[in-house]
Design goal:
This protein is of the alpha/beta class and 174 residues long. 45% of the residues lie in helices and 17% in strands. The protein is built from 6 helices and 5 strands, in the order ββαβαβαβααα. The chain has a 5-stranded mixed beta sheet, with helices on both faces. Helix 1 packs across helix 4, helix 4 packs antiparallel against helix 5 and helix 5 packs antiparallel against helix 6. The longest helix has 19 residues. The radius of gyration is 16 Å and the shape is globular. The termini are far apart.
Length: 174
C-alpha cells in the first residue's frame, strides 16, 4: 500500500447517476458516508482529499472526470467556514469545474471560535452540514427551519445557511 493524496468514492455508485460530488478532508468523511448510507442517496459521490498542499490537482481532476453528469462540486468541512481549508483551496476547486458545474460549500457558519460551546448547537450544525451535502436544497431549508424552531440554532446563525441555499436555488434555475 502507499499514500494516496486523493481517495475516490469507495462504494459501487453508477457514475452516470451522480449529480453532486462532495469533496472533503478529515473525519467529516465518515459523517458524510453515514448520512448518504442512511438516506440511500446514490446521486452523491464522496471524494477524500488526504493532501491539501501541494494540491493534488491532476489526481482530483482524474477522480472528478469519473462523474461526467455531476452538476455540482461541493467542498464539505466540519470547521466554520472561515477556519477550515475552504478559503485556501476554493480557487483550486473552481479551476476544476467544467461546463455548467457549480461550486458549493457545506459547513458551519463563519465563527470567531472553533466550537459553538453547546452540544445541541453542535449537533444541529452538523445536521445542517450533512443536509447541505446530501439532500436537496428544499430538504436543507426544512432542517434549518426545524433547528431554529427548536432553539438549537439562532435565526442569525441560520441566516448564512439560508443565503447559501438561496444562492444554490438561483444557480440551479439559471
Amino acid at each position: 500500500s502507499s499514500f494516496k493524496p486523493v481517495i475516490g468514492d469507495t462504494t459501487d455508485l453508477d457514475a452516470k447517476k451522480v449529480k453532486r460530488v462532495v469533496v472533503c478532508a478529515g473525519q467529516v468523511y465518515y459523517d458524510l458516508f453515514n448520512a448518504r448510507k442512511e438516506a440511500g442517496n446514490d446521486e452523491v459521490a464522496i471524494v477524500r482529499l488526504e493532501q491539501l498542499y501541494p494540491f493534488p490537482t491532476e489526481q482530483l481532476a482524474a477522480e472528478l472526470a469519473k462523474y461526467p453528469h455531476a452538476r455540482e462540486l461541493m467542498w464539505a468541512q466540519e470547521e466554520p467556514k472561515n477556519q477550515g481549508a475552504w478559503y485556501q483551496i476554493r480557487h483550486r476547486l473552481e479551476k476544476l469545474l467544467s461546463g455548467k458545474q457549480t461550486l458549493q460549500f457545506a459547513g458551519r457558519p463563519s465563527s470567531a471560535s472553533p466550537a459553538v460551546g453547546y452540544m445541541s448547537k453542535h449537533v444541529a450544525q452538523l445536521k445542517a452540514l450533512l443536509a447541505d451535502a446530501m439532500e436537496s436544497t428544499q430538504g436543507a431549508l426544512t432542517e434549518l427551519a426545524q433547528a431554529i424552531e427548536s432553539g438549537a440554532v439562532t435565526s442569525t446563525e441560520a441566516l448564512s445557511g439560508e443565503v447559501r441555499m438561496l444562492e444554490t436555488l438561483i444557480q440551479q434555475m439559471s
